[in-house]
Amino acid sequence: MVLVDYSVQETFTQKLSVPTGLSVTSPEKRGWLINPLGTNSNFPIWMMFASVIPAILVFILIFMETMITTLIISKKERMLTKGSGFHLDLLIIVASGGVAALFGLPWLAAATVRTVTHVNALTVMSKSVAPGDKPKIQEVKEQRVTGLVVAVLVGLSIVIGDLLRKIPLAVLFGIFLYMGVTSLNGIEFYERLQLLLMPSKHHPDHVYVRKVKTLRMHLFTIIQVFCLAVLWAVMSTVASLAFPFLLILTVPLKVFALTRIFTDREMKCLDADDAQPTFDEKDGLDEYDELSMPV
After folding, report:
1. Which has the closest alpha carbon to 70: 60, 80, 55?
2. What is the Cα–Cα distance from 79 to 140, expressed in whole angstroms?
3. CA-closest candidate to residue 162, choices 28, 9, 15, 1
4. In tens digits, what is the pLDDT along the chain, a chain of 295 residues?
């Protein structure tokens, strides 16, 4: 598409804006180093302590994004062997964030869509499957080559600015849209959204389909959709600064509210870390009695 855009000179398309050389965005306003005590005037002492509040909000966002991304890519069905490095990820992000703040650079984040897309590209699916069955994950090519190449290419973007300025923004938006849509595969919430429009007889063989009644499963999905709509509405308004607080409120919502609506067994099926949760069978309770039978 970049070549097509380059060959058609009569049509104007908005291109990627890349600064020339190695410099800050606005050299006339600031230099490389940000003075923590203020540039034009002294930074008030009280504001130093008040900065704790937005710092907590930023911490919640970074922590939640990092943990959610790690949980998505380290699912048991991916059969990862090298570990996820939960604590090391947070340590690197916090350390780099402190250094980046001194230079006025963006904070490092987990980049959920890009990370999930990267793992999906390294995933090898089974080719010999029975008719009607979905391919299963055989292995994930765990290596550091692609991460190193990405870092090198990001560094080379400094010297290939003339080439990057020829890339239309529409091409980048298309790539981001493709990455976002493909990364939805394997997310349970997205799969249950599709089940809302699918007849029960065509539902796939998942644990939350077999062990939870259809109406109860749809109720849980609708509650999640409502929470997502509230978060999206808040993030799109001037009250977006409260987004981290609303995000953290989903924890007590699950612990205190959803446990009153759904049983412990249903919660394990609908919101478990493992694709196949284990259940402790009680004496006198048969597995057959707890199956969701069609009426």
Report:
1. 80
2. 7
3. 15
4. 777 777 777 777 888 877 777 777 777 777 788 877 777 777 788 888 888 888 888 888 888 888 888 877 877 777 777 766 667 777 888 888 888 888 888 887 777 778 888 888 888 888 877 766 677 788 888 888 888 898 888 888 888 878 888 888 888 888 888 888 887 877 788 888 888 888 888 888 788 888 888 899 999 999 999 998 998 888 888 877 778 778 888 888 888 888 888 888 888 888 866 556 666 655 455 554 555 554 4
What is residue 278's three-state secondary structure?
coil
The interaxial angle of helices 243-252 and 214-235, nearest 10 deg, is: 160
Q: Rounded to an integer, what distance in angstroms lies between the CA atom of residue 250 and that of residue 268?
A: 17
d(CA 210, CA 269): 9
Give the Cα separation of 154 and 171 in Å (integer). Answer: 18
Specify the amino acid at residue 133: D
Displacement of CA 35 from its chain's centroid (Å) = 33
Residues in a beta bridge with 140 = 123
Q: Counting Cβ atoms within 10 Å, is residue 269 exposed (0-12), middle (13-18) or buried (19+)?
A: buried
Residue 112 and residue 118: Cα distance in Å, rounded?
Answer: 10
CA distance 108 to 203: 40
| Cα angle, residue 91 at apex, residues 90 and 97 outer, rounded to 5° | 85
Question: Is 227:250 a contact under the CB 8 Å cutoff?
Answer: yes
